[in-house]
Amino acid sequence: MIDNTTPLVRIPRPQLGDDVRRVIVANALSIIDVEAADPRTRPLLEELLGPVAGRWDLDRPFRAEMVDGKWRTQGVSCCGLVAEGLWRRAGVDAPWLQVDYRFGEAITRARRFSAYLQPRSAWHLPTVGARPRAGDYVVIGTGLQTHALTCIGWEDDMLVSVDGGQVGARGLQAIHRVTRPWRAAGTAATLGGRVVVGWVAPEMLPGLAECQVPVGWEGVAV
Question: Judging by DSSP bridges, how do beta strands 147-155 and 137-140 pair with one another?
Fold first, then answer.
């Protein structure tokens, strides 16, 4: 059973699509219940969030408001950062994964990057009968309700995901396993009541030579 105590190792990045998905899902399983308030797991969260100028503001609950045309924030919302941190572990070749984060860029940069890949986009819109697979990076909601999650499977019509941006002890950031009902009508879909914007197929993203995986990743079902 992979959990947040499972050791990580480096391997050559797999070439087969399902193995790329296994890498993503196994890494997602290895970060469930990682919390900023827990000194045992906080280093895992900081590593996953990636580079930042200074330190991650993880000791305060996240808040954001627009004041006089400018964003005023406290703490950090890490849903997109966590999903993109899984890409970093999986060896996705996206230069922005290695540079300091600036507020408001997560999710937007991942969507833009995946949508404009050549010769084929990795960004998928909801269509009749289509739904995300295990390993997909899924975007739901709009505006301040925009949220990114990593699908790890299905339980009937419930999408099972690993989500950053959750609230843990003391109101601080946490990563949890979440289930939400999927509802589809024609080319539109909702997940947990929020509109499904689209999702990214990880096997279509460019890759580096190596990736990082928890021991036992090969046995993960996708």
Answer: antiparallel
Q: How many CA atoms lie within 13 A of 28 on its CB side?
A: 30
Global confidence as pTM: 0.94
3-state SS class at 142: coil
Rounded CA gap, 36 and 58, in Å?
A: 6
Helix (H, G, I), strand (E, B) or coil at 175: strand
Other residues' Cβ atoms within 10 Å of the Cβ of residue 104 = 13
Paired sense of beta strands 147-155 and 123-124, if any: unpaired
Distances (CA, A) of 141 to 56, 127, 191: 25, 17, 9
Nearest to 198, CA basis, from 156, 154, 142, 144: 142
C-alpha closest to that of 206 among 114, 86, 98: 114
DSSP state of 99: S
Residues 101-153 pLDDT 10s: 887 788 999 999 999 999 999 999 999 989 999 999 999 999 878 999 999 99
Give the tokens for residue 134. 């295990």
What is the phi/psi pair of residue 129, to 5°?
80, -5
- For the chain, which residues make up each domain, given as ranges? 8-219
Structure tokens at 209: 């030579």
CA–chain centroid gap for 203, Å, is 15
H or E element that contains 21? helix 17-29
Strand 188-191 vs strand 173-185: parallel, antiparallel, or unpaired?
antiparallel
DSSP string computed for 20-85:
HHHHHHHHHHTTTT-BTT-TTTHHHHHHHH---SS----SS--EEEEETTEEEEES---HHHHHHH
